Amino acid sequence: MPELPEVEAVCRKLRPAEGLLIRGVTIRRCASPNVRRAKGRKLEQVERRGKHLLLRLSGGKTLHVHLRMSGNLFLLPSAPAPSDARALFRLDGAASIVLEDPRALARMELVDTSTLDLQLSRLGPEPLEPAFTKQWLVTQAKRSRLPAKLFLMDQSKIAGLGNIYAAEVLFRSRINPRKPIKTLTTIRLSRLHAAIVGVLDDAVQSACIAYSGPGGFLDSETFPLAVYGREGQPCLYCRRSIRRLSQGGRSTYFCPGCQR
Hints:
By secondary structure, the chain is an alpha+beta fold. It has 2 domains: 4-120, Alpha-Beta Barrel (N-terminal domain of MutM-like DNA repair proteins), CATH 3.20.190; 134-254, Helicase, Ruva Protein, domain 3 (Orthogonal Bundle), CATH 1.10.8.50. It has 6 helices and 12 strands. The chain has helices spanning 4-14, 113-120, 134-142, 148-153, 163-172, 186-210, and strands spanning 22-27, 43-49, 52-57, 61-66, 72-76, 85-91, 96-100, 107-112, 211-213, 216-217, 243-247, 250-254. The protein has a 4-stranded antiparallel β-sheet. Strand 11 (243-247) and strand 12 form a beta hairpin. The radius of gyration is 20 Å and the shape is elongated.
């Protein structure tokens, strides 16, 4: 599933379309019928909030997109849309914005901007923004009974972290994913804060270069996965086998030697 880095990459690749008028809309699946009312509106700004992609339109409306497991949104300069395109927004000139989603899991709807912003205000702070401080993390952690991995994936705590990067963050900070977050010392929580920012910053840079859609990375991908998806392989540091366990219905990967 696209997480903060991948959604940020999608967001940046759509920004050249800012200021263009939507002259036509074609929808097939994954999109609410009201998306057709985007026709005739100007794309004023492309933003991201957590894993949510927001296309701000004129007239106080926003196209709210959640890519989920298989969705991708991209700017097509002039070529015909792919056969599995679920929505197509024809812009000024020959360009189009395309929602591609082979598994039809992504969701898109046209909503009132003010209503959507109120809903998204319930998300935690953006981990790469100034509001995400060490003290904020320490305060929230001490109030929570969740295991460290599930705490990181709680979108009301930190917006945008998902299964892949939560595992990588915990490995970089040497924290066992099952460890109750409230039991960590302030020093370890400070280390966790640094790992969150560092992992996501590295992953954003990599995704902006290499991300081509869910499950697809170019050869120029630069973010190395230390534990995610490496069950049974040797740890890059201590050489013990990477293990996998289930948490919250998702697979968690960790090193039993490095993460305590």
